[in-house]
Amino acid sequence: MRRIWRLVLIGLAIALVAGAVGWRISAQLAAGAVRQAWATGVAHYAPITVSVDGTGALQPGRVEDVRLAVGGQVRRVQVANGDSVAAGQLLLELANEAAYLAWEQARLTYDAEAERLEQMISGDTGGLTATALRAAELRAEQARLALRSREQAVEDLTVRAKASGRVETVVVTKGDTVVPGALLLALQEESAAKVRLQVPEDRIGSLAVGDQASVILGPLPEVHVVRLSLGETSVYGLRLGDPVVAAIEGQWVSTYSPIVRGTIAEIRGGGALFQVTVRLPGLPDNIPAGANVGFMQIYPSGPQAQGTVITASGKIALATDTWGLEERHLDQTALSGRVAAIAGQGSAAGGVVSYPVTIELAGHPPTARAGMSAHAAIMPAGSAPLFGLSVLEFDQGRVTAATAGTVVGVFVSDGQLVEAGQVLLELDNESARLQLEMARNDLEVQENQLRDMSQPQYSERELRNQEIRVRQAELAMDAREADVRSLRVYAPQDGIVTNWHSTVETGRDVPAGLQVCRVLNHEAMLLVVQIDELQLDQLEVGMPAEVTVDALPGQVFAAHIAEISPEGQYQQGISRFAVTVAIEASPRLRSQMTATATIFVAEKQRALLVPAEGVTFFRDGEAEVTVLAEDGRTEVRRITIGLFNNTHVEVLSGLAEGEKVITGVITVPGLPNWRNPGSVRIP
Length: 683
What we know:
By secondary structure, the protein is an alpha+beta fold. It is built from eight helices and 39 strands. The longest helix is centred in the first third of the chain and has 30 residues, at about 1-30.
């Protein structure tokens, strides 16, 4: 209570002091001891610079994307991500026999067309040469091949399932535009169910691809077990199925007998230490993992261990119960399969080296899902069966676009079962349909020409048509030659290789149009800054600038405006425009360094300046200031302005050097006559 009264008294004292201070200030104001005065700035001559600032991250000056002009199989790769390359350096080489054949056919066609034109010009109508006839046959055959290719392209617009399975993920939606090779959806193929079993090194030599196997799919039951680590003397004479008596400790003893019986379920390992699993069936489900088995007696049945008893203790764990599953494999009630692959490289875990062996199932229930528990068995010829736990796997089928187009229909969804041949998606490509029609017409023309070549009659129109065919054949030959040259891909410029596509590896097939990598040239650097729309009108391409970099304090780099974006982005009530600044080359600059560009808009060495806060701006270079005379009178005056920045404004007319311009009001103590503010110069 005393403390509360003390706080009350302190509060009253503070209130009294505050009241006295307030009364004193009010009295001073009334007596003229405190008043307001004008803050002013003096018109004076000085240099002025107008600049615009912006901050961003440095970017390479030249970026070249490397794309494949033709597809093929990767024959060799010469570079990797991060490598420095010179312009014209070989990056990779493709193999494409079809491209070489097409080039050879194009050369033959050109030779035949040129020979045919020469005959027509010379007036030779006495029959066809073998070369001309062969060329006509080649043209007709090429037209047939082109027609089949165009028909296949249109047929590929309807995407069908190649195998039965389950749709995992649909990647595209209606309206999406896709390119050849683009992923459309992922399909879990039903016919490729697999199980991988880890086989110890002492048994791997007895297995062979094609060995009989079987699998039991989950859910598999669980059982209480105790896992022990025993020395080789302790397991001497111990066998699978040997009896065990265990005593359970803890709060669960009150609900059932603390003494339980079990068996030896597994003996693994070798050398000085063995892993022994004791199976304790029949325990209630409420016994959790971690319950203590304080005492355990194991009775080996081997003749060399008759009469011995192994004592141990441990913690209860829950494990998949494989007891009795081996008999199901042996009586052929499990799902049948075969050994499909045996790994050539093993791995060590817990001192034991094992090899993954792949079992491929002949069939499985329609309810099977990837990741289900599986108990697998392998029955090698002339050797004991192998058993083990694993999970069910499925091959992941990638359904990709064979031709470009726009998605006009998606007929499946995630998780849906599909049959082989079922329509999954529908694409549309008007160009592909037009090319099909052109291919049909071209085949008809080539077949008619082949049929009529035995009776040539050359009019002016036919000669002109033949000249056109020669030119077309020449262009086609040049194009096929360019395709062959494109099988060797070179660096487009000096720089660093980045973004190397993961599929471009030796031996892999890659499609035309694939972006292989990018080549970045850091000799010239760019900086893109966002400029306020109110400042944009002052900027022009070519204006000088200076760039400073946070990571290089004290360094200034010369630059200039290289590009001003014609379109801005509206954010938070204002539009900003991207301005690209080109920086002179320097080995110290790196991509993504934070940098600030100062762009010099205008500069004057001698200008009549006043503080910007004292100027009221109007349109067309007009403004207004309030001038304070020596006698304390004020005058509002119109002025003409020139350059201006954040601190000063240039006065072209309406004001003389030395005149004072009011910039604001301040409070000054101890000055009389508060009714007529005086002048206070702010430095």
